[in-house]
Amino acid sequence: MDPVDVQGQSQSSSQSQGEVCSSLRERSISENSLVALLQGMQGHVTTVELRDEGWAQGRLQNVDAFMNLRMRDVLYRGHNMGHTSKLQDLFITGRNIRFVHIPDHMDVLQTIQTQLQRIHRVRTFNREGGGGGRREYCPKKK
Amino acid sequence: MRLILCSNSMADEVEQQPSTNTVEEPLDLIRLSLDERIYVKMRNDRELRGRLHAYDQHLNMILGDVEETVTTVEIDDETYEELYKSTKRNIPMLFVRGDGVVLVAPPLRVG
């Protein structure tokens, strides 16, 4: 399966860095797995190595809970290509990822915590509607 | 500080290292290897050796100071001899997707 085909398996819409997916299901998946780190890396330039031996180097535009990626300004080399192509926009299905290189300057722990805080903020924002907001989980007893 | 993303609770805050140190399930064995150097066998004849910084229930991992070894077998056309070649490279910090991981172990010692 060619990893660059667009697959409609997730509902994530295009979001700028810092915005959290509005789907409850995706938020739950992200906050319980290391995908949160990749989501925190949105906006950074990275190299993604694919399952089929190709790689793509560019700016992570959006990562969803299933690790599907959108990248911008990408240098892409497929497994059977001897040359690299420059692509403005690239979608990679999560299943086709083998590795993601993490930039040296990135603090892994801080990135994950920041992303978890963003998810938490979205959840509490929903609850603050005077009790009329949708409750996502039982209130914590203080 | 260790960051553990728990799969059995809706964590609304980062949880510190759990107070229990007993090994209850196989993933706990990996927890024992946090911050240690480990050996990871992956699909497609790949091996990684690096320091385990983080993992999750899918075995997605973050490894630091990684050495990746790719092993290929070439067969001589005439003698049908098997020639094993390995290619290595180093990566400072790597996110590994869990579905490629076959096994996780302490680094192999020679002899």
TrEMBL record, chain A:
GO cellular component: cytoplasmic U snRNP body; nuclear body
Matches recorded under PROSITE patterns: SM (PS52002)
Pfam families from the UniProt entry: LSM
SMART domains from the UniProt entry: Sm
Top-level taxon: Eukaryota
Bias kind Low complexity: ranges: 7-18
A biological-process GO annotation: mRNA 3'-end processing by stem-loop binding and cleavage
Protein name from the UniProt record: Sm domain-containing protein
Organism: Knipowitschia caucasica
TrEMBL record, chain B:
SUPFAM superfamilies: Sm-like ribonucleoproteins (SSF50182)
Boundaries of every Sm domain copy: 25-110
Pfam families: LSM
One GO cellular component, as annotated: U6 snRNP
InterPro entries in the record: Lsm3 (IPR034105), LSM_dom_sf (IPR010920), Sm (IPR047575), Sm-like_LSM3 (IPR040002), Sm_dom_euk/arc (IPR001163)
Matches recorded under CDD domains: LSm3
PANTHER family: U6 SNRNA-ASSOCIATED SM-LIKE PROTEIN LSM3
Subunit relationships: Component of the precatalytic spliceosome (spliceosome B complex). Component of the U4/U6-U5 tri-snRNP complex, a building block of the precatalytic spliceosome (spliceosome B complex). The U4/U6-U5 tri-snRNP complex is composed of the U4, U6 and U5 snRNAs and at least PRPF3, PRPF4, PRPF6, PRPF8, PRPF31, SNRNP200, TXNL4A, SNRNP40, SNRPB, SNRPD1, SNRPD2, SNRPD3, SNRPE, SNRPF, SNRPG, DDX23, CD2BP2, PPIH, SNU13, EFTUD2, SART1 and USP39, plus LSM2, LSM3, LSM4, LSM5, LSM6, LSM7 and LSM8. LSm subunits form a heteromer with a doughnut shape.
Protein name in the entry: U6 snRNA-associated Sm-like protein LSm3
Taxonomic source organism: Knipowitschia caucasica
Name of the coding gene: LSM3
